[in-house]
């Protein structure tokens, strides 16, 4: 499996990604050590809860790394432009910034300095990368797993005081034990911010996918009817994820391949 890496040299963007990673580390290391693991050792929570929490954390991290380093669909400097088929040539246009031919619905990213096929937007806050045809499915996975991990973190934070049984053996000499309430409040606040931010982002992304309209096209007030009618959610997600196998939609460690006969096949770009 060959995964092409794509890194954007933007210090501000990597600072934002570093802050997201810091929140992930804080909640992934702190919450299990204060809540999940002690209650598991005393038999208050099942082992499946521990495994599920760490699985969600691992998938969230994998989606973040893959979305941040995956090629979003950058056009090569010498794309293969159809010469004989006039119908296919009509699907190409000239970029007025880099003066290269590109497929329609591509967009020139001023931060990255190149055109991206079916670019949705450039995201400096979460992945420091463009969201385009080849990594849109990874960005969607990041939204899903961040929502899941934030929800589980909030459950543990609030369950520590309102639902779970009191611990019989609670060490009092450690820093985390002495400041448990303050640490869990910070965890709950970060979980609420992540959950709220990703909820709105996930909604807008799904609305765009189902209506076949990118964020850039919405900002430019393009009508979705320019590009096709509203599709079923299965066919829309299958095209974005590059497979009709629904289980593979949730796996970040794979390479996307455009569907045969799909609207955005780029085998000859």
Automatic annotation (TrEMBL):
Transmembrane helix found in the keyword field: yes
Ranges where the Palmitoyltransferase DHHC domain occurs: 92-220
UniProt-listed InterPro entries: Palmitoyltrfase_DHHC, PFA4/ZDH16/20/ERF2-like
Residues passing through the membrane, by range: 12-35, 47-65, 142-163, 183-203
Catalytic reaction(s) noted: L-cysteinyl-[protein] + hexadecanoyl-CoA = S-hexadecanoyl-L-cysteinyl-[protein] + CoA
Keywords: Acyltransferase, Membrane, Transferase, Transmembrane, Transmembrane helix
Known EC number: 2.3.1.225
Membrane topology field: Multi-pass membrane protein
Alphabetized GO MF terms: protein-cysteine S-palmitoyltransferase activity
Cellular compartments per GO CC: endoplasmic reticulum; Golgi apparatus; membrane
Domain of life per record: Eukaryota
GO biological process, one term: protein targeting to membrane
Top class in the EC scheme: transferase
The UniProt record lists the keyword Transferase: yes
Family annotation (Pfam families): DHHC
Subcellular localization, as worded in the UniProt entry: Membrane
Homology family: Belongs to the DHHC palmitoyltransferase family.
Domain observations: The DHHC domain is required for palmitoyltransferase activity.
Protein name (record): Palmitoyltransferase
Organism of provenance: Tetraodon nigroviridis (Spotted green pufferfish)
């Amino acid at each position: 499996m060959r995964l092409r890496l794509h890194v954007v040299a933007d210090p501000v963007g990597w600072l934002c990604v570093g802050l997201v990673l810091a929140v992930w580390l804080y909640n992934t290391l702190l919450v299990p050590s204060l809540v999940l693991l002690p209650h598991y050792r005393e038999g208050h929570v099942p082992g499946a809860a521990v495994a599920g929490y760490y699985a969600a954390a691992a998938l969230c991290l994998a989606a973040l790394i893959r979305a941040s380093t995956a090629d979003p669909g950058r056009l090569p400097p010498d794309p293969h432009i159809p010469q004989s088929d006039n119908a296919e040539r009509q699907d190409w246009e000239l970029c007025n910034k880099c003066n290269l031919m590109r497929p329609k619905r591509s967009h020139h990213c001023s931060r990255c300095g190149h055109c991206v096929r079916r670019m949705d937007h450039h995201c400096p806050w979460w992945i420091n990368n463009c969201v385009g045809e080849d990594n849109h499915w990874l960005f969607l996975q990041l939204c899903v797993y961040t929502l899941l991990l934030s929800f589980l973190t909030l459950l543990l934070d609030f369950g520590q005081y309102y639902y779970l049984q009191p611990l019989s053996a609670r060490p009092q000499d450690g820093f985390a034990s002495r400041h448990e309430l303050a640490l869990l409040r910070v965890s709950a606040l970060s979980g609420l911010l992540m959950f709220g931010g990703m909820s709105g982002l996930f909604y807008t992304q799904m609305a765009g996918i189902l209506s076949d309209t990118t964020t850039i096209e919405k900002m430019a007030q393009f009508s979705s009817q320019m590009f096709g009618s509203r599709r079923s959610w299965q066919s829309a997600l299958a095209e974005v994820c590059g497979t009709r196998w629904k289980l593979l939609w949730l796996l970040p460690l794979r390479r996307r391949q455009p569907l045969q006969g799909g609207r955005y096949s780029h085998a000859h770009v």
